[in-house]
C-alpha cells in the first residue's frame, strides 16, 4: 500500500487541502452518505467527491483516483483517532491563531462580514465553529504525522540513489525559476488613530471598574476573534510565550487587576491578570486594532526610498539591509529571500502560479536590480510598502542533481516520510475500529496496494 498523505513521486507535491471557502460553497451532485468510519470519525462520500473534483480542476499531473483519495482520508482519520489514544494535543492558541488568520483572509476577500454571510449562507458564528473544528483536525493530524516522522533524515547518498531510480524519460521539465528578496516596512497608525483606540479601551476599563463584566465586553468588542468568544481568556501561557510588551504588563499585575492600555505589534490591549501558577500565568484581554486600510504609507515609502539608494550605491548589501530593517519576520533572517511554500526553496517558478502582482513587478525588472517602493499587504492584512530585489533567474531545464539538489532532496525526504507513515499505518490500523462501505470495497484500503510508485 502506498499512502496518499505525502508526495508519491518526483515532481508531484501534495496539493493543498480544499480551502475553507471552497468547502463551504461546494455542492456535490451526488446523494451524500457515510462511506467510512475510523473509531468516532466519519468520512462522507461528498468529501471524496470534493477532493476528486479539486484535483481534476487543478491541472496537476498524476491526478489520484477516488480510491487513493479515500485512502488518504482514512489515514488522516486514523491519525486523529491515534492522537486521542496517544494524548497528542494541539494547543487552543495555535488553533485560534490559525482561525483568526483564515477569517482575516476571508474578510479581505469579501470586504465585509455581511458579504461573507451572503456568500456562504451561514452566520459568522457558525462559520467560525465549522472552521475551528476543521482546523483542529488538520493541525492534530499534522502534529501526529510530525511525531511519526520526527526521526526522518536524508543523506546525500540517499538523494543520489533516489534520483538515479527516476527513468530519464520521466524527468520533469522545470519552468524558469527566480530568486526574489524583499524588504517590508509596515504602515503605522497616526496619533489620532492611536488616541481613538486608547480612548475606547480606557472607557472599557472604567466600565469594568464600575461593575460591568470584562468577559461580556471582550465578547462584544475584542478583535481577537479566538479569545473574544471566550471572554478574552487566553488560557495559561508560559513565560516568554507572549510578545514582550503584553507579558511585561501582565506580570506587573495582581490577580484580577486591570492594566493600562498596552501597545504591541498586534494592536492595543486592555489586560486583566487572572492567575499565576509557577512559570505560567493566565490572562485575558480586549484587543483593538487600527483600520489597516486607512493607514498612511508615506513614512514607510520614504524610508524604503532611502534604503534603496543606499543599496544601489553599495553602501549596504540587500541581504544585510533586510536582516537589519525588514519588518517581515518570516524572511528577515534569510536576508529577505522569499520561499516557495511548495518546495521550501528560495527558487520560485516564474510562471502563472506566482502571485500576479509579484510576477508583473519582476517581469519588468532585470536581474540584480531593486524596485521602487510598492504597496504590499501582509498575510494578517496589514498595510505596508516593500522593495523587491531580483537576485537571480534560472532558465527552464530538465531536472538534474547539480541545479535542483534542494528540490530533489526535499522530495526524497518526503518519500522517506511516506514510507514511515505506511509502516505506521499497517501497525496502527489494528488499534482502532475501521469500517469501509461496500461501495468502496474494491479499493482495498486496508488490504493491498492502492497507489503504485
TrEMBL record:
Superkingdom of origin organism: Bacteria
EC no. given is 5.2.1.8
Query: For this UniProt entry, which residues form the secretion signal?
Result: 1-21
Give all residue intervals belonging to the PpiC domain. 175-275, 278-389
> Which keywords has UniProt assigned to this entry?
Isomerase, Rotamase, Signal
InterPro entries reported for this sequence: OMP_Chaperone_SurA (IPR050280), PPIase_dom_sf (IPR046357), PPIase_PpiC (IPR000297), PPIase_PpiC_CS (IPR023058), Trigger_fact/SurA_dom_sf (IPR027304)
Q: Which GO terms describe its molecular function?
A: peptidyl-prolyl cis-trans isomerase activity
Can you say what this protein is called? Peptidylprolyl isomerase
| Taxonomic source organism | Aquirufa avitistagni
Amino acid at each position: 500500500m502506498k499512502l496518499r498523505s505525502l508526495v508519491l513521486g518526483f515532481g508531484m507535491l501534495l496539493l493543498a487541502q480544499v480551502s475553507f471557502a471552497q468547502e463551504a460553497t461546494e455542492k456535490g451532485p451526488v446523494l451524500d452518505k457515510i462511506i467510512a468510519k475510523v473509531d468516532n470519525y466519519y468520512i462522507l462520500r461528498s468529501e471524496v467527491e470534493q477532493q476528486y473534483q479539486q484535483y481534476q480542476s487543478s491541472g496537476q499531473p498524476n491526478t489520484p483516483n477516488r480510491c487513493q483519495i479515500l485512502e488518504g482520508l482514512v489515514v488522516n482519520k486514523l491519525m486523529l483517532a491515534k492522537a486521542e489514544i496517544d494524548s497528542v494535543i494541539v494547543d487552543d492558541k495555535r488553533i485560534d491563531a490559525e482561525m483568526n488568520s483564515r477569517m482575516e483572509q476571508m474578510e479581505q476577500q469579501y470586504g465585509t462580514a455581511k458579504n461573507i454571510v451572503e456568500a456562504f449562507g451561514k452566520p459568522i458564528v457558525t462559520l467560525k465553529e465549522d472552521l475551528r473544528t476543521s482546523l483542529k483536525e488538520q493541525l492534530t493530524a499534522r502534529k501526529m504525522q510530525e511525531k511519526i516522522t520526527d526521526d526522518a533524515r536524508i543523506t546525500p547518498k540517499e538523494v543520489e540513489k533516489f534520483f538515479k531510480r527516476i527513468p530519464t524519460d520521466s524527468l520533469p521539465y522545470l519552468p524558469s525559476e527566480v530568486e526574489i528578496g524583499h524588504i517590508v516596512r509596515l504602515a503605522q497608525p497616526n496619533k489620532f488613530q492611536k488616541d481613538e483606540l486608547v480612548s475606547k479601551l480606557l472607557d472599557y476599563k472604567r466600565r469594568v471598574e464600575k461593575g460591568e463584566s470584562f468577559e461580556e465586553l471582550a465578547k462584544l468588542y475584542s478583535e481577537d476573534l479566538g479569545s473574544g468568544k471566550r471572554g478574552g481568556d487566553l488560557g495559561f501561557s508560559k513565560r516568554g510565550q507572549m510578545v514582550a510588551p503584553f507579558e511585561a504588563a501582565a506580570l506587573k499585575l495582581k490577580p484580577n487587576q486591570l492594566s493600562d492600555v498596552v501597545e504591541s505589534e498586534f494592536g492595543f490591549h486592555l489586560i486583566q491578570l487572572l492567575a499565576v501558577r509557577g512559570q505560567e500565568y493566565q490572562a485575558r484581554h480586549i484587543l483593538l486594532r487600527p483600520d489597516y486600510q486607512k493607514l498612511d504609507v508615506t513614512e514607510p515609502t520614504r524610508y524604503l526610498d532611502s534604503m534603496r539608494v543606499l543599496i544601489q550605491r553599495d553602501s549596504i548589501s540587500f541581504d544585510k539591509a533586510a536582516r537589519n530593517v525588514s519588518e517581515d519576520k518570516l524572511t528577515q533572517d534569510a536576508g529577505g529571500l522569499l520561499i516557495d511554500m511548495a518546495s521550501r526553496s528560495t527558487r520560485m517558478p516564474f510562471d502563472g502560479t506566482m502571485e500576479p502582482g509579484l510576477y508583473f513587478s519582476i517581469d519588468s525588472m532585470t536581474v540584480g536590480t531593486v524596485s521602487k517602493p510598492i504597496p504590499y499587504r501582509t498575510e494578517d492584512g496589514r498595510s505596508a510598502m516593500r522593495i523587491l530585489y531580483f537576485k537571480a533567474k534560472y532558465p527552464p531545464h530538465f531536472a538534474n542533481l547539480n541545479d535542483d539538489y534542494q528540490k530533489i532532496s526535499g522530495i526524497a525526504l518526503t518519500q522517506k516520510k511516506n514510507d514511515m507513515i505506511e509502516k505506521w499505518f499497517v501497525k496502527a490500523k489494528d488499534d482502532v475500529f475501521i469500517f469501509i462501505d461496500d461501495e468502496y470495497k474494491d479499493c482495498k484500503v486496508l488490504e493491498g496496494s492502492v497507489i503504485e510508485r
